[in-house]
Recover the amino acids of this structure.
């Protein structure tokens, strides 16, 4: 039996560098995504530019437990 993805699943991408950020954006086309990074300035900038309702960026590692 195949399981269809795209319901309430949340994916967490750890590290928003040259691999993590494009990966988070790609996944957010189909799933809810939390992008986690330790760099507060980067996260603040990404959240300011973000218009994707399925994608959120955070430095709060407790948010990763939901995914």
């Amino acid at each position: 039996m195949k399981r269809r993805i795209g319901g309430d699943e949340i994916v967490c991408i750890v590290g928003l560098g040259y691999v993590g950020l494009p990966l988070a954006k790609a996944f957010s086309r189909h799933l809810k995504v939390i992008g986690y990074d330790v760099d507060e300035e980067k996260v603040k900038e990404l959240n300011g530019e973000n218009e994707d309702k399925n994608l959120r960026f955070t430095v709060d590692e407790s948010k990763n437990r939901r995914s």
